[in-house]
Amino acid sequence: MAERLQKVMAQAGVASRRASEKLIADGHVTVNGKTVTELGTKVEPSDHVEVNGAPLEGQEKLVYYLLNKPRGVITAVKDDKDRQTVIDVLADVRERVYPVGRLDYDTTGALLLTNDGELANQLMHPRYKIDKVYIAKVKGVPTNDELKTLRLGVVVAGKKTAEARADITKLDKKKGTATIQLTIHEGRYHQVKEMLKAVGHPVIKLHRERYGMLDVNDLLSGEYRELRYEEVQQLKSGKQVRRSSGRL
Questions:
Q1: Which stretches are transmembrane (predicted)?
Q2: What is the pLDDT of residues 193-224, one digit of tens each?
């Protein structure tokens, strides 16, 4: 089945679809030995495509996996310190997948991995505003005013965070801790930890329970599953089902 050239390039991991369009327009792509600059060009699986003289690697089947990331695993394709990565956890997946976004070394929970570069870029774009639900065990018990601050936005590294949802789901008065469910749609570095630290409640333990409409309530730590067709379509359409258990 013929596909648009820029889509084939994006699916093969060359670049995002937009970046692939620029490569085509600038004359860096050939199809069956001829330079192609027309963005509407379609190619068949049998066509020979080269980018800057290098053959396009065989187009892989697009796959989508949801992992319940364990603690102590790096969200990366490889690590120069030989620490275990999320790719090591998905050792029996033959396609070259990569994580969408990241979770800290000591943070557990929902992580999407795919080889669909177009969808990955869409999900990580700030305008997409996909919900990410975190369950955080913190020191101390946040006051109503502190929860309100979290909801309205906290200044982190000189910039105010977007509005969020924040609720206490559990208290341990003897230990002086609380469990908070925090829903954000941004993806700044250490954002949840920095937000809670900013209101005086450092994180003890952090788990991402849900990414968009995908939760890991039925997956043990280190387990993963392939997404169903309808789930992939929901992610692509931007539709989200809001549900969460608040467990940590």
A1: none
A2: 999 999 999 999 999 999 999 999 999 999 99
